[in-house]
Design brief:
By secondary structure, this protein is mainly alpha-helical. The chain has nine helices and no strands. Helices cover about 75% and strands about 0% of the residues. Helix 4 packs antiparallel against helix 5. Pfam families: Fung_rhodopsin. It is a multi-pass membrane protein. It is found in: Membrane.
């Protein structure tokens, strides 16, 4: 098929300068997450008169940086994705750099998943290190804490591996139309549900660490309420993960997951996660 001297319709040129709802959603999600992290950092600086630099703070900064990269990569793919959809629907003519743009888009889709999971797991590790001091002097709970940390690292590695195995090969991953076999469809489903299970299981274990300890500690009711609020937002994070996965599964058509749903819910879940540590 020749792609010589293709042109884009003028209407498409005009529309490409406008933000799509998906792009607005990505930007809004990043803004919300950034504001909450800045507020959290500012509150801690005001209280201690120094830049927060404990382990839970460092992981929170890592989460924000990773989330910014996630949003940037998704944002970069949107124009190409909608161009491809328009060409497939006959609403737009192929253009000279189409093949290159699609290849770059597929590279970005492959890479962005790692940063998305790094965002979620960085938030988890931030919470886990926040709860670490509650287990100091309690050998049993300290061992449980380490077990949960190891479990969280293993599940993160598992999610990354599942991304590699979603297609039969890296060539299939970055080549349009190659990652569409029955095997690939099953692998994508496995990756989706494994990552959801790993996400929820890790969240539940992290929140279970301090539950028994909290009520036995002599801390003020205000501190207990504050921790309770973190738990509540953690539940909202799990709800966002469930909605994202169920929505993606229900939108599967011919083995392909709706990309716009993937982008929007990734932004929402990442924003909710960073807001969890904005407390």
């Amino acid at each position: 098929m020749s792609l010589e001297k293709p042109t884009r319709p003028e209407a498409s040129e005009k529309e490409s300068t406008e933000l799509t709802p998906t792009q607005r959603g990505v930007i809004a999600s990043l803004c919300v997450g950034t504001v909450f992290v800045i507020m959290r950092t500012g509150a801690r600086w005001f209280k201690n008169r120094r830049v927060p630099a404990k382990m839970e703070d460092l992981f929170m900064y890592l989460a924000l940086v990773s989330f910014a990269i996630t949003c940037s990569l998704y944002y970069a793919t949107i124009d190409t994705f909608f161009n491809v959809m328009a060409i497939a629907a006959g609403e737009m003519k192929p253009y000279a750099s189409l093949e290159h743009d699609v290849r770059v888009m597929l590279y970005e889709f492959f890479t962005v998943q790692f940063f998305f999971w790094l965002t979620l797991w960085s938030v988890k590790w931030s919470l886990l290190f926040t709860f670490k001091r509650l287990t100091d002097g309690l050998p049993l709970y300290n061992r449980i804490w380490w077990a949960v940390l190891v479990f969280s690292v293993l599940t993160f590695i598992g999610c990354c591996i599942s991304n590699f195995t979603s297609c039969s090969s890296m060539h299939a991953w970055i080549t349009a139309g190659e990652c569409a076999t029955a095997r690939d469809s099953r692998a994508k489903d496995i990756s989706l549900w494994f990552s959801l299970g790993a996400d929820l299981a890790t969240d539940l274990l992290i929140m279970a660490v301090p539950v028994r300890v909290i009520w036995n500690l002599r801390i003020s009711p205000v501190e207990k309420i504050s921790i309770g609020v973190v738990f509540l937002v953690g539940i909202l994070t799990m709800a966002a993960a469930i909605i994202r996965s169920v929505s993606l599964e229900s939108s599967v058509s011919s083995g392909q997951v709706s990309t716009t749903w993937l982008i929007l819910w990734a932004g929402i879940e990442g924003a909710v996660g960073t807001c969890t540590r904005g407390k």
